[in-house]
Amino acid sequence: MISVVVTTYNQENTIARTLDSILSQKCHLPIEIVIGEDCSTDNTRAICQTYADKYPVIIRLLANEQNKGIVDNYFDSLLQCRGRYIADCAGDDFWIDTEKLEKEVRVMEAHPNVTMVITNWQFYNELTRTTYPSHQRLHAPITAGNKLLKDIITQRNMSVFHLCTSLYKAEVFRKAYEEDAGLFRQTNYVSEDMQIAFVMAQHGDIAYLQDITLNYSCGGVSNATDDIKLFDFVYKTTQQIRYMANKAHLDIQTFLAERIFVLGMHAFRSHQAPLFHQTLNYEREWLTDRDWKIKLLFTVMQHEWLWRLGLMIRHSFVATKRLFR
């Protein structure tokens, strides 16, 4: 059996599309759909209940009494899955290949060492209903997972996976969760996908299919323009990455130095001195070295008049770029 996890919150305009794309799958293995409905304030729950009533053998609706948030809702739903394999499709995304699961299962059955299969995908613009390609690429149909660990957690070179394209082994997740639940969720975690790909790569090979199977609808805090929110998001994801890197004994000091610069730029653009001081604390905590960019940025922010001048120059530069677009 394949368990398909669908987590959703306030997605009344897209959740039916997501469920229809899963129900249209043609696969020789039976599937179940586990919906984690996170106490929506719109009509999402009613739509999910309609589908659960219509497909009682296939769909199980987990209707949360209180909002749990993305991470807890996902892993609580995951722990309810009964399948040998697990797939994922978020409540605003949808599969566009009716044989997605069948293709991935064939790979799993032919290659016992493969713990996760991922595919290519594309962005989907909800307003224009147009698509444009992603930058996900793996160079081989099957890659040893330990060669991908650093790329998975840092994504410095490219995004090497999208969880909503994946099929992975449930037993690998369950065993890893029993050994270290803190790897998957802590109070300050904001991501649920990196941990899954990380443990799958730790325990086997990763397979890649070039077929485009997913339309990914963009959105969320990582696409926001609020530098204060982005500062918090970058810090929390970096803490997750540090946890995984320490677990796998990976050297990510260069990456951490880059993150210090990113945090510094969010502090600079928001003109928030407390965020600057937090960045200095993280620099000491993460034991990173300063390159010339970080030295220059921190020098500017140490002097209020320089900071204000820097913001004026930046605003003028941005305005000029817009004029010549």
Question: How would you describe what is shown here?
Answer:
By secondary structure, the chain is of the alpha/beta class. The protein folds into 2 domains: 2-219, Spore Coat Polysaccharide Biosynthesis Protein SpsA, Chain A (Alpha-Beta Complex), CATH 3.90.550; 225-323, no CATH class. The protein is built from 12 helices and 10 strands. Strands 1, 2, 3, 4, 5, 6, 7, 8, 9 and 10 form a 10-stranded mixed beta sheet that branches. Helix 2 links the parallel strand 2 and strand 3 (59-63). Helix 9 packs antiparallel against helix 10 (273-286). The mean pLDDT is 92.
Care to give the gist of this entry?
This protein is of the alpha/beta class.
What's the CATH topology name of the largest domain? Answer: Spore Coat Polysaccharide Biosynthesis Protein SpsA, Chain A
General shape: globular
Structural class: alpha/beta
Multimeric state of these chains? single chain
How many helices does DSSP assign? 12
Feature tags:
46% helix; alpha/beta; ten-stranded mixed sheet; Spore Coat Polysaccharide Biosynthesis Protein SpsA, Chain A; 325 residues; 12 helices
